[in-house]
Structures are given as structure tokens and as C-alpha cells.
Amino acid sequence: MPDLDDLLPLNESVAYVLIALMDGRPRHGAAIGKRVAKMSERQVRIAPGNLYPMLKRMVDNGLLELDGEIDDEGALRKLYRISVVGEKVLAADQQRLQQRQRAAASVRRVYAPAGPTQ
Asked: In the chain, N or C: fewer CB atoms in 10 Å?
């Protein structure tokens, strides 16, 4: 499994998959894809041809764990859950984004144009 720093920064799709699973409920791929689209207000939509290889990489990297399978109308679907590593990486990525926001805000304060002059 890669070092946590090797998994950062998260790309948007990976971050949304982790966020979609933060409620602790295992989900199959199609349900994850739908939840990501809903949570992102349809700004992030992951096509099935991209989603399933991404989920496999996330399992291989330790971000997700397999949580069994369910029978869905005769089709077996793998269930995924966020791992402890996934939670740690997501938290580290959120801290990284917050630091970037603070840096941008400090620059805006310093270099903001002055108000109208009279």
C-alpha cells in the first residue's frame, strides 16, 4: 500500500467517492456513482467505464475496502466501504484545501484593490 503522502492530492472524483462513503454504509459501484453525481450537484459524473477501474485502484491503494457482495436481480455487485486509510487521506486532503483557501484569502486582503476614491 502506498504512503499517505503518495495518495495526495486527491483528484475530484476520488475525493467525491470517499465523501460519498463517509456515512459508513457500504454501496455498490452504481450507487456510488449516483451518490457522487447528486452530492456534487451533477458537477462530477463518473462514467461506468471509468468508475469501476477507479474503485479497483482505490481498493488496491487501501482507500476502500470490499464489504461483500449483494445479489441485485441476478447480478452480483461488490460492496465498497471507505477504509481507515481512506478517512485519513480525505482528512489530509481537506486540510490541504483549507490551507490553500487561507493562502488565497491572505493574498486577496493584501492585494485587493482599494475602494473608490473621491
From this structure: C
How do residues 36-54 score in pLDDT, each as one tens digit? Answer: 999 999 999 999 999 999 9
- Tell me if 32 sits within 8 A of 21, measured CB to CB: yes
Q: At what angle do helices 84-111 and 12-20 cross, to 10 degrees?
A: 120
Residue whose grid cell is 441476478: 74
Q: pTM to 2 decimals?
A: 0.85
- pLDDT tens track for 75-102: 899 999 999 999 999 999 999 999 999 8
Partners of 27 in the β-ladder: 80
Task: Please list the residues that pair with 71 across neighbouring strands.
Answer: 76
The boundaries of the domain holding residue 89 are 8-111
In whole angstroms, give the CA distance from residue 86 to residue 19: 10
| Amino acid letter for position 100 | R
CATH classification at residue 64: 1.10.10.10
Alpha-carbon distance of 18 to 36, in angstroms, equals: 9
